[in-house]
Specification:
The chain has one helix and 16 strands. It has 255 residues and is mainly beta. The protein has a domain at 91-183. The strands form four sheets. Strands 1, 2, 3, 4, 13, 14, 15 and 16 form an eight-stranded antiparallel sheet that branches. Strands 6-11-8 form a three-stranded antiparallel sheet, with no helix packed on it. The two termini are 20 Å apart.
Length: 255
């Protein structure tokens, strides 16, 4: 009798809920080397009490917990926001001049320009940097007293330069109009939505899986720095109920 031996492969899509619980459309999660579904049942067992050896006469599954795990390699902004439990946004930096940004510095240290309560990570993409003492003098020399990474707007105080430890400085620079992606964590909880797997098996019959309601929570570490492996994110997927729908649907392909 033929058997359906499966070597599974396919693509995963996440349909994010909005603030009102409405689904907003499926987004491809990118390359996912791992996707597993776990089903655990709690059982009630009972044994008779009258004989010399208690024999089991009742064994009933009373609760079921369905969950899944996803391992993803697409380190996109949307996936990072899912993993970090946060939101992705676009920072819009307008052009303009900054005058007399005050810093107190030490030799051999780096300082992020433009950092503020509204923009803790600072500005990007600057030009025409001038560094002076607190009263406007002296004017320090680029590449001798300090250096600047203009793209990242990071000021470095040279160890052999004329700027002494604990010196108050004033920094002038121009900002270029630009944009970049930012992901900021928050305390709003893991993202909820629906999950779909479209099978493209290496071997065996294709069966597609649909989970109408789930929560995508981070499930492990992300190696921000490693030469041993590419970055991967693990998600622990808690499967819930959406209205009267079943928790999981598995559909074959039309004959």
């Amino acid at each position: 009798m033929p058997q359906n031996i499966v070597l599974g492969a396919g693509k995963l899509y996440f349909d994010l809920e909005d603030a009102n619980g409405n689904l907003t459309g499926e987004r491809y999660l990118g390359d996912t080397p791992g996707f597993t579904v776990n089903v655990q049942a709690d059982k009630l067992e009972d044994y008779d009490s009258d004989g010399p050896i208690a024999e089991k006469h009742l064994d009933i599954a009373t609760r079921v917990n369905r969950s899944a795990q996803i391992v993803g390699k697409d380190i996109s902004g949307d996936n990072l926001a899912l993993f970090l439990i946060g939101d992705k946004s676009t920072v819009n930096q307008s052009s303009g001049s900054v005058t007399d940004e005050a810093l107190t510095v030490k030799k051999g240290h780096y300082y992020q320009l433009g950092a503020s309560a509204s923009r803790p990570a600072g500005v990007r993409d600057i030009s025409t940097v001038v560094v002076t003492g607190a009263g406007g003098t002296p004017t320090y020399v680029d590449a001798t007293d300090y250096t600047v990474d203009l793209t990242l707007a990071r000021l470095y105080i040279e160890s052999g330069g004329a700027i002494a430890d604990d010196t108050p400085l004033l920094v002038d620079y121009a900002k270029v109009a630009t944009t970049w992606e930012e992901i900021a964590s928050n305390n709003l909880g893991a993202k909820k939505g629906a999950l779909r797997f479209i099978a493209d098996n290496t071997q065996g019959e294709n069966r597609d899986l649909y989970i109408p309601k789930c929560e995508m929570a981070p499930g492990g570490e992300l190696a921000w720095k490693s030469r041993d492996t590419v970055q991967q994110m693990t998600f622990a997927v808690s499967i819930g109920k959406r209205g009267s729908y079943a928790q999981v649907y598995v559909n074959g392909r039309p004959a």
